[in-house]
Amino acid sequence: MMKVRFWGTRGSIATPGPSTMRYGGNTSCVELRSDDQIIIFDAGTGIRELGNHLLQEFKSRPLTLHIFISHTHWDHIQGFPFFFPAYESLNNVILYGPPGRDKSLERILQIQMDSDYFPVELGDMSPHIEVCEVRDTVKVGNLTIEHFYLNHPAMCLAYRVTDGRRTVVYATDNEPYTGTLHPVGGKKLKATDFPTYLDEKFVEFLSQADLYIGEAQYTQAEYEEKRGWGHSPLESTVQFAVQANVKRLALSHHDPLHDDTFLDRMIQDAKKLIAFYGGKVECLGAHEGMEIVIP
Ligand SMILES: [Zn+2]
Ligand SMILES: [Zn+2]
User: Fold this and answer.
1) Which of 95, 132, 152, 162 could link 156 by a cystine bridge, Cβ 3.0 to 4.6 Å?
2) pLDDT value at position 189?
3) Structure pTM?
4) Which residues span the domain enclosing 22?
5) pLDDT tens digit string along 66-78?
6) Interval between CA 152 and ligand 2 midpoint (Å)
7) Which residues surround ligand 2, an ion (CB under 5 A)?
C-alpha cells in the first residue's frame, strides 16, 4: 500500500493563526510511504514537524530519505535547515529537484544556508546529504518517479510516483500553459497550438492517478488579477483532474489570503464543478495531518 500524509498545505508563506487552524499554516511538505521507502515532496516549513516525527519513530535506526523538491521558491525549501534528521550522520538524505535558472540546485540550497541567512551551513549537516538534479526517471526501491515541467516563474517540476499498481502525482505551483501563452487580446490559436499541446501533455502525466495532489490557489475572479503568477484557478485544476480521470484530487498549496471558511467554500465549489463536468473524481481539501491510504 501507499500512505500519504500532509505536513504543510500552505503556499507562498507560512500563515499561522486562528483563521487557518483547520487547513494549516505550514508551507508545502507531503510524505509518501511505500513498503520501507520514505519519499518527501518539498521542504517547506511543514518538514520540520515531519523530521521530529521521524526521529521519534525511528530513534537511532538509520534512515534513507528521498526529498523531491518541486522548485526552490521559499515555500518549498525554507524548512530544510530545520529538518533535524539531516543533521544525524547515520542518515542518508538525497535531495532531488530541477536546476535553477543560472545556478545548480546544490548552490541554491547552499545559499539559503549562507551565514548571513542561517547559522549552520549545508556542508555542516550530515555528511551523507546528496543533491541530484533530475534529468531522467528516478528509481527508489520498487518506485519509479517521473517528472514534468510546470508553468511557473521558476524551473518547477511535478512528480509522478508509481509502484506499478498505485500512482500518486504531486503537481502544485502550476498555471495552465494556455493561461499565459495564448496571445492576450489577439486571436486565439488553433487547438493544435503549443500551449494546448503542453496542457494536454500535463493531463497525460496525471492520467488515471489514484491521487493527484494539486493546487487551486485562486478562484476564477482572483485569477484574472493574477494571470502569469504561475498558479491555477479552481476551474482549470478540476478540469485537468476530470480529463485525466484521476480517482482523487487533493487540493493543497492554499493561498495565504484564504482562511478556513473560504477554503471550505472552495472545496464545495470544486465538488460542484466536478459534477458539472460529469466527472467521478473525489475531491478533498488537504489539511495538515491529513492521511490518505491507497490500498
Ligand atoms: Zn509554492
Ligand atoms: Zn513558486
Assistant:
1) 152
2) 56
3) 0.96
4) 2-294
5) 999 999 999 999 9
6) 7
7) 73, 173
